[in-house]
Amino acid sequence: MGQRQLDQDRIRIDRVSKHFTLRHTRAVKEIVVKGLQGRRKELSEQFTALRDVSLTVGEGEAIALLGRNGSGKSTLLKLISGVMGADEGSIAVRGNVAGLIDVGAGFHPDLTGRENIFLNGAILGMSEAKIHQEFDRIVAFSEIEEFIDTEVKFYSSGMFLRLAFAVAVHTDPDIFLVDEILAVGDEPFQHKCLDRIRELRDEGKCLVIVSHDLDMVSRFTDRGVVLDKGRMVHDGPIDEAVALLRRRAEG
Amino acid sequence: MVVSSGPRQTGGHGDRGASPSHPTAHLDKANITPMSDTAIFQAPGTGGGLLDVFHRRYLLRLLVHKELKARYHGSVLGMLWSYIKPAVQFGVFYFVIGVFFKMNNAVDSYAVYLFSGIIAMNFFSEAFGNATRSITGNWALVKKIYLPRELFPVASVFVSFTHFIPQVLVLLVGCLVTGWHPTVWQLLAGVGGFLVLAVFALGLGLIFGALNVVFRDFENVVDLILMVATWASPVIYTWTAVRDALGDGPLWWLYQCNPLTNVVEIFHWTFWYPTTDGRAPMPTQMPTFVAIAAGVSVVVLGIGQLVFRRFDGRFAQEL
Predict the structure, then answer these.
(1) Predicted TM-score (pTM) of this structure
(2) A74 to chain B: nearest residue by CA?
(3) pLDDT for B91-131, tens place per residue?
(4) Which of A23, B115, B246, B280 sees the fewest Cβ atoms within 10 Å?
(5) Which residues fall within 8 angstroms of residue A48, CB to CB, at 6 or more apart?
(6) ipTM (interface pTM)
């Protein structure tokens, strides 16, 4: 506890806003017609996913991002991971970022499990040596040893996800982002994933978890950030955050 | 147990601390292991652009491999297609232009002349065309995981290179049959010409690859450019025909400032010229034109990188 020094921060989010433009059309005809009619505003709508959010997360800290669907949680994760840029404010991270977000996005169906481990490992920032070093552990974690040289398109969806998770949890980043982990896999495998995430947390990684599973997040994190329509409405102990959400859910 | 610092007040803090660029901070091997205090703050999603691609060349290699494997997947002939297509294309041009239009009589070993231009254009078309589609084609990755996105156009250029090699081999066979005796300078010029071509294709690929994310129309624009490009360089005709038509004024200079024209001429000098009796005229002021071509390519690559950076932050939401 106590005053943490600035250089122990891992993530600094300073007054960040993110807007999306929803274009209704890209057809030249409509753009020209609406333009001539002076109704250009009808061509697109502005939607604000995040409004003036500030947040600092330190080393060894595990936080949960909570809120209803569409509250901006995933957008915030995307900003932290660098997939998108913020429109206003600044975001800075120290160290490398990886995590369980859209696991399997880098998988290619025509490649074998083995080739996909290397490709996905490299996509998630692992070096060649590191992948070789972790390879056996990844395969063991995924429990698909006998199919490792089979093309991924022949995998069942469960096998696919297990392999994708196995790679993702062995990337060893400084900042680990988790988006809805419990949505996949059978129960024993979910437990294995949670154990691994707990391990990462205990190793002192900075953890940011997005989930609707309030029981899970209160076991995993100490701090909860609640978003509501893109605004931050709570940042404090996880119990308070969970209580706030439960109160809101009831009415 | 849990190392926690408990809840923390939020709010703007003075020190934004974002170092604008330190491309290697999250890239080199040392940083894969926990390194706590060596890393510095940087804005996520901003890197060193093409420099990052260099740092992640292992990933680049895997992406090229993936691309090739995916392309020839389920195809019986596989890589053989990269011989068959240029062979057919060559056959068509050779018979129509060489035999029917009698270019064979006007140009010594016209087959070699023609093919050395064709392979330059093929490489350029494939590299530029695929680089343009590379960001939209890899939308799943671009949308979900941050990578230096320059990787995709660069990978396209490398994939095209693997198709370029077999064509060069075929051309070399043709050269040797017709009595090829190149000097070291001519060989070096060929390599240099290829580099200029690759830089030019990558630069254009970065520009149009980025624009294509916002407006898919640019795919068609690129197809148009490529269609014109084949005819705007002395691939099937000779440069003297152009000079005779344009004179040696500004139009001629404009024609010669096209890097493609120069690379085709360089390839002629490397592959075709040493198979002739050496009486065929090469363009005067060649060194000047080649210097301009190299300059134009590098400038286009620079512009490409800038345009790409500018649109990079929007890729994930536009796709």
Answers:
(1) 0.85
(2) B144
(3) 888 888 888 888 888 888 898 999 999 999 999 999 999 99
(4) A23
(5) A17, A18, A19, A20, A230
(6) 0.85
